[in-house]
Amino acid sequence: MNINPFEIPCVILSGGKSSRMGEDKSLLSFSSSNSLIEFQYKRLKPYFKDIFISSKIDKFDFLDDKTKLILDINQDIYSPILALQTILEKFDKVFIITVDTPFVKLETIEKLINSSNNFEITIAQTLEKTHNLCGVFSKNINTIISFMIKDDIHKINYLVKNSKYQIINFNNEDEFLNINDRKEYEKALNIIK
User: Which residues are noted in the entry as GTP-binding (predicted)?
Assistant: First the structure.
């Protein structure tokens, strides 16, 4: 697919606990890359004018340009809501994807971005699941995020339902394979072969 780089930045979320994996999944080797995060970053980089990694700490040896790292304001609580707050203080509009979804197609990303006008959140959905952290987010939701944090609400679904949102349907479940545990990691390694 030959496209001009997307104008809006991409941020890869890579600050989770990885509790089901038992170790930091973003640092697991993947394909020809030393880590899953390196694979995802290098895969998406040519298609965005700007790409960043959101994390709790700098754990990325491959990342030479440390300005591409967005560190969470709150180091104690693991929550994508806190990561979003930090990210949306930096950008007006951003494409968000998680480190553990390495098969989301560029055509899918393009469709999400191109459909995002007039919405605060535009996310992907398949038959089995809504993919709340694969889509376009606008800084207009930061007010809701602030209220959520104050009230200790950390559910992405709550944020979506209380925003001007849009859901785009996709048919390919495998494209959204989420690597959370060893079994899913093995499945992903077989797919990438």
Answer: 13-15, 25, 72, 100
